[in-house]
Amino acid sequence: MEGFVIEGGKPLSGSIRVQGAKNAALPILAACVLAEGIFEIHDVPRLSDIEAMCQILEALGAQVIRHQTSIRVNTRLINNYVIPDHLMSKIRSSIFLMGPLLARLKQVCISHPGGCAIGKRPIDIHLNGLKRLGVQMTEKEGVIHCYASKLIGDEIVLDFPSVGATENIMMAAVLGEGTTVLKNAAREPEISDLQDFLNKMGAQITGAGSPEIRIRGVRSLRPVSHTIIPDRIVAGTLAAAAGATGGEVLLENVIPSHLTSIILHLQRLGIEIEQGENSLRVRGPKRLRPIPAIATAPYPGFPTDMQPQMLVLLTQAEGISMLTETIFESRLKHVDELRKMGADVTLDNNTVWVRGGKSLNGTSVSATDLRAGAALVIAGLVAQGTTHITGAEHIDRGYERFETVINKLGGIMERKTGFSSCSST
Ligand SMILES: CC(=O)N[C@H]1[C@@H](OP(=O)(O)OP(=O)(O)OC[C@H]2O[C@@H](n3ccc(=O)[nH]c3=O)[C@H](O)[C@@H]2O)O[C@H](CO)[C@@H](O)[C@@H]1O
Ligand SMILES: C=C(OP(=O)(O)O)C(=O)O
């Protein structure tokens, strides 16, 4: 097993270019299935989730060649509509192949997708939306076979603005007949990036970024080149690390408007942030201020993917803060780990009460999911002494060579093999 060892107490400083967004790259790679030919996708982060998506594309018949952060996908020979179970269960984003395969091959066989253990994560909103487009489904021994002789546009009102369901339905409807109107759609920037990508291919989609997206079906799409937007959560994580350690960091390749809520909350803590056109300069204060109440919410609210990192900041802010997770049922497993490091945090259902201002101490902790892992890295950078974090594989899903980034900014973080799963107890 791989893990990380962090020596705390060093303020981060210097500049770093933020990687492309995992959550934009994953649906865009899936969307390549929609046209026959060669796509060039740039600024794709080197992450295990992206590798898994590439393996799925290959299993469907695509050729995938990676050169550094660019990926060339040749989709000409795609002819398989069955996503193997072992690949479905590797990542949550395997579900993104449903829409594109239905649009191209008129059928798809899936099983339940994998992903971080942060809640039940059902797929009913995806399935109900696709049914509205005329997709029929049968389920046998955990495998769902979906098929449609043609996809026909309709009005679809999502029960919840699910990011993945919004993207999946967009990708299915794009080659359908007539117009699909998607109401209560998710508004995340990654959805706008998908719209931009699909429109470059010849799609007719408007409204991404608002709660209503209109998709006018077209007969065919063509392959294109595209550069993925910067990762707003990685930028937020690094800003939090700089703020927590009292450092000063320049983050390049950032779209500040994608981080409005994150920036606002970091500023409430007392962290100084200067916004450039494509950059953020972050300066940590001597002392962080508590925030009485924060709750996660769909975009443009405070993102659930920044909740664990925010919790670490609150442990360092003298006074009482309260943080509520509203998107996922069990995304607070890092609370116990932070307590092991000396944080005064109490869990009440999905709300954490924080009595901040106590110093953290290095110890052995376990990353239970991707953002929990990122939070423990920040905690390790703040803590006195050495922190051992198991579960590097979770962190590698979303942060490209995290230790290299942290070391470049003056932190001390080393990847180690040979961790046993007991080292967190
Ligand atoms: C690859 C990607 O983009 N992942 C992001 C995406 O995940 P993902 O697309 O899976 O998240 P959703 O927006 O779909 O999920 C939000 C909530 O809706 C529920 N739900 C979702 C679909 C469904 O069919 N039924 C249902 O009940 C989920 O269990 C969850 O409680 O958005 C999340 C919420 O911002 C982020 O944390 C993830 O980083
Ligand atoms: C939960 C996340 O990702 P996924 O939806 O791919 O599991 C995340 O990026 O924090």
UniProtKB/TrEMBL annotation:
Gene Ontology MF: a single term: UDP-N-acetylglucosamine 1-carboxyvinyltransferase activity
Record-listed E.C. numbers: 2.5.1.7
Reaction(s) catalysed (UniProt annotation): phosphoenolpyruvate + UDP-N-acetyl-alpha-D-glucosamine = UDP-N-acetyl-3-O-(1-carboxyvinyl)-alpha-D-glucosamine + phosphate
The keyword Magnesium appears for this protein: no
Subcellular locations according to the entry: Cytoplasm
Annotated catalytic residues: C116 (proton donor)
Residues that coordinate or bind UDP-N-acetyl-alpha-D-glucosamine: R92, D305, I327
Function: Cell wall formation. Adds enolpyruvyl to UDP-N-acetylglucosamine.
Identification of the protein by name: UDP-N-acetylglucosamine 1-carboxyvinyltransferase
Species: Thermoactinomyces daqus
